[in-house]
Amino acid sequence: MPDFVPLIKAALLERFGERLEIDADLAGLDEIARISSHRVHRRYHARELPAHLVRLLCAAALSAPSKSDLQQADILVVRDRSKISAIADLLTGMPWLRETPVFLVFLANGRRLPKISQMRGKPFPNDHLDLLFNATVDAAIVMTTFLRAAEAVGLGCCPISVIRDHAAVISEMFALPEKVIPVAGMCLGWPAEEGGITPRLSLATTVHEERFTDNDLDAAIDTYDHRRAAKRPYRGQRDIERFGRNEFYGWSEDKARQYAVPLRADFGAFVRSKNFRLD
């Protein structure tokens, strides 16, 4: 049996900059190794993806936990090259999308529950923000589970949240009805390159014991910026005309610049147009 401990330790050291203790007799280390070694893949072989395999992965993903067994997540499978090209035309900064064999859209479905209440002659006094929140969380859990299942069979994925920049166009393209919205897309194919491990914020920053604290956030972010830059430096700097060019350009500078401009300011209006209530 393969020894997964060194693989897990190496992946998590690269990811978090921390050497974790791992019990070699722990069950499920093969799955822990896959999760720890997760990589985004943006290049794919032209090899076909059988429909029965994609359906199997959808079934595995929809086996994920669902809030109160409400089952408010759907998966839209897109193989039509003209539709994939139309999405790629919207997202010009992602050329790999045009080559993906299959494109998936993970949907938050707040439509079924009101319809079921109507079918069963019951009132539905829960048409408020929680309906959207639960459906969105369900969709995110299903998407993550799909990614795990796809990686387990050797496929590569790239989640595409930026489809929400064009939520109304995507909605019209796929005839999404009221109370059904796109949460994220995902490219799916046989990977043509290995991809790299993206360093994350330290566990000391994101794992809290007994109470929340971020007293040392400045120092923690600075340490992370330099650790990440040493492993995966940014190829370019955002909005140089506005912010100038920094001698050192880390993750925090990139994210601060990214969110220094309004993003998806119209998304709330789109969600309301789909008849979700946000109160």
How would you characterize this protein structure?
- Strands 1-2-4-3 form a four-stranded antiparallel sheet.
- The protein is of the alpha+beta class and 279 residues long.
- Helix content is 42%, strand content 10%.
- The protein contains twelve helices and four strands.
- Helix 3 (51-61) packs across helix 6.
Order of helices and strands: HHHEHEHHEHEHHHHH
The percent range for helix content is 40-55%
Number of helices: 12
| Main sheet record | 4 strands, antiparallel
Distance between the termini: 54 Å
- Which regions contain 5 or more consecutive residues with pLDDT less than 50? none
Indicate the structural class: alpha+beta
Give the averaged pLDDT, no decimals. Answer: 96
Strand order, sheet with most strands: 1-2-4-3
Q: What fraction of residues sit in β-strands?
A: 5-15%
The total count of strands amounts to 4
Tell me the Rg in angstroms: 21 Å
Shape descriptor: globular
Gist of the model:
With 279 residues, the protein is an alpha+beta fold. It has helices at 5-16, 29-36, 51-61, 81-90, 112-119, 129-152, 167-173, 203-206, 217-231, 240-243, 251-258, 267-273; strands at 73-78, 102-109, 156-160, 180-189.
Task: Supply database-style keywords.
alpha+beta, 4-stranded antiparallel β-sheet, 279 residues
List the topology elements.
Layout: H1 5-16, H2 29-36, H3 51-61, E1 73-78, H4 81-90, E2 102-109, H5 112-119, H6 129-152, E3 156-160, H7 167-173, E4 180-189, H8 203-206, H9 217-231, H10 240-243, H11 251-258, H12 267-273
Antiparallel strand pairs: 1-2, 2-4, 3-4
